[in-house]
Amino acid sequence: MTKAEFLEKVAGDERIDSKKAAADSVDAVLDAITDTLAGGGEVNFTGFGKFHVAVRSARQGVNPRTGERITIAGGKVPRFSAGSALKKAVKG
Question: What are 39-63's pLDDT values in tens digits?
Fold first, then answer.
């Protein structure tokens, strides 16, 4: 599902007045999650899941063209852990 398709689905909900309101709401939620993760925090929606930042350590890799071993730098990456209600809904 693309963002445009997602906005269509949200705008179809009776709690949302218009497509513009849907777009503004989705953008506000995504911006809040992004800002919180960028600051090193986590966002937890009980039952749905948790967004958090994980630290990935440096690791060894291989350059596919030359076969030379290289070191791939570590860093911070966003992660999502699904909550029990979401897992149950997907499982069926």
Answer: 999 999 999 999 999 999 999 999 9
Q: What angle do CA 91, 30, 35 make, to 5 degrees?
A: 120
Which class is domain 44-92? few secondary structures
Q: Domain spans of the chain?
A: 1-39, 44-92
Are the C-beta atoms of 51 and 78 separated by less than 8 Å? Answer: yes
Which pTM does this prediction carry? Answer: 0.80
- Residue 22's Cβ-count burial label (10 Å; 0-12, 13-18, 19+) is buried
Whole-angstrom Cα distance, residue 18 to residue 20?
A: 5
Per-residue three-class SS string for the chain: CCHHHHHHHHHCCCCCCCHHHHHHHHHHHHHHHHHHHHCCCCEEECCCEEEEEEEECCEEEECCCCCCEEEECCEEEEEEEECHHHHHHHHC
